[in-house]
Hints:
single chain; alpha/beta; 11 helices; 13 strands; globular
Amino acid sequence: MKIFISDLHLTSKGTLSKGDITALWDDIKDRVDYKNCPIELVILGDFFDILKDPMWRLPDLWGILPESINKNFKNQEGQDAVKKIVEKTINGNSGFFDELRNKFGPQSDRESKITYVVGNHDRLINFVPEARIMIRARLGQEQCDGQFETEYIRPELKIYATHGHQHDAYNFKRDSNQIPVGDLIVWILINGFQVFSKKPISITNLDGSMEFMPDYLTKFFDKLDNLFPHDVVPEFIAYSKSRFDLSADDFKKIQEFWKDQYGKLQKELLKKSWKELKLILPFRFAVKIKPANHTVKKITDTFLKMLSPVYKRWVLKLQDQEQWTLKFLKEKKNFQYFIMGHTHEACVKLLEKCDYLPRYYLNTGTIGRRIIKSFSSKSEAAFIPVGMFNYLLFYEPSDQKTPKIFELCNLFSGLDRFI
Length: 419
């Protein structure tokens, strides 16, 4: 039996606990006879989140960011940073890793193992041997000099699996020396803004007193990590004005910083490829707007419809992995099951039938929390945290007698109150 999970986005500040793995294991053992079938847990990318880790946001690292995508990753400072992030992430999530190995690692009474495939947020680990050694030790894997795989292929089961960022124009470059636009957006806009939120910027409280960036605003902007999709970040920032009743002057300081960071992003793209400027247009819309509402959304949607067909092709459908899979089918006719993560959207879709065999696109979703846009009773944009815990079971012929082949499971999902 294969168990696919993805997009845990573990960081050095601690993300998941022992209880999360215990809950996953309890749910799985209620579904299958785990004692009589081999178990392989496949972690399908973005297990660690190097790009968004708080330690990666430190200003003294900003100068080496371009080097982090260098094919050979020769910058020692960058390698040391990744190593420290991995070490602190493992220690900060020690209960999680202990239980992960206890439940899914090599066992004396049954055959089981953990396979790790890297995604876009953890691919830098492959350039740091010391980081790979630490991870393999904690997962109970045999030590070797090789990198973690970027694909998981089982021809005998007709499975082709990968994280999925390779089919996203934001997050993949065929030339590994080039920095994907998605990395720049994370480094300059998302991480940069979170660093800004911890700076001593005076804010006027409701009682008229002055203080540096208050704790409630810092915690609010820390949630930028979990926004989905990322192009709603400007609206989330704009939402802070009404959420905390900020004065016009205070909110202007926040807006000005966003404009400055957006300008830096433009300059970086101009250095590399001006054609990619179109990819960051969605992040420009809210630079000067008031808190987002239906009117703003209508104007934005109208503008998007007026954009060129090329823009609509590469921006509005950037993560349409289903369309990519249909194209891929023409080349990989011996596969039936295309399994990916990356989008955080768990789903099962029948793509087509070929030689009377159904072919499926399966997405593993995510394990963690994300924030989605909604609307309050006043028809203004609001944001809600959503807890997600998805995993995919893939049964091998020897596992059971029933004809079931795969099962997409949602251990938990729930909505919280507005942020």
